[in-house]
Amino acid sequence: MFSGFMVNAWTVASIVAVVAGVVGFFAVLRGSAFVAHAVPNGSFAGAAWASLVGINTLIGLGIFSLLGALGIGLLGRRGRHDVVTALALVLMLGLGSLFLSFSGEYAPEVTSVLFGEVLGISANQVAPTAVLALVCIAAIAVLYRPLMLSSVLGEVGEACGVSSFRMELSFLAVVALVATMTVPVVGTTLIFSLMIGAPAAARSFTDRPLLALALSVAIALVIVWSAIAASYATDYPVGFFVGAASACAYTLARASAAWRQRRHVDARPAFGAPTPTAALPS
Fold first, then answer.
1. When you count CB atoms within 10 A of the terminal residue's CB, does the N or C end of the chain come out lower?
2. Left (φ > 0), alpha (ψ -120 to 50) or beta: where does 272 sit?
């Protein structure tokens, strides 16, 4: 399980989990789960276009991910964000279908974009993935304070000089970079599950931003590691285990949050009940 090609799978999956936990935390915080789904899935068109013109798939993914993300940001400023996101997604999927019809075949690279090939990662994919991951983490580190402010208190951020529109475009550019980095190796289904399931579960456990961010990464790593081990043992797809584990993590987190809230309510004194006071000295 830890030798040969599996070393590449463990390494790249761990890198992807860290990035998904960090960037996904802000996707959940900003209510951008649909965007986190649309941009990676829409990048399918980039892979199909790259296959058609005979260039590196990574280039096509990067171009279409960025165009899709910026298009969502620019058009969403004037219209409903969910409608714009949905239209961008169907447009890019339609373009992908068109490019595939021109090529006359379903290239393996394009198919892997949708479902991923975690257990088939080659050694030459590790270094580019690590470099792009560092860029993503560095971008979030630079944007952390203004991005957090615009995500939680948008009006206060505007008053402090933090443009919500610029933060939105910056964050969407990071999401596009994440899609470019992760989709070729893990597919759109796996990265979407990690970017939403783990951060949403982490936010249910705590309201402290840095702790939730660290917990998001930890949960994503546990999900990925357990999914790879289960896939290796059963021969079932990694994506299935990632999706199931993400859903379970979120369900358990919400159940835990509900239990804690109920305990907090039960611990309050009943309305009208006398409040215990310290005995006065005689």
1. C
2. left
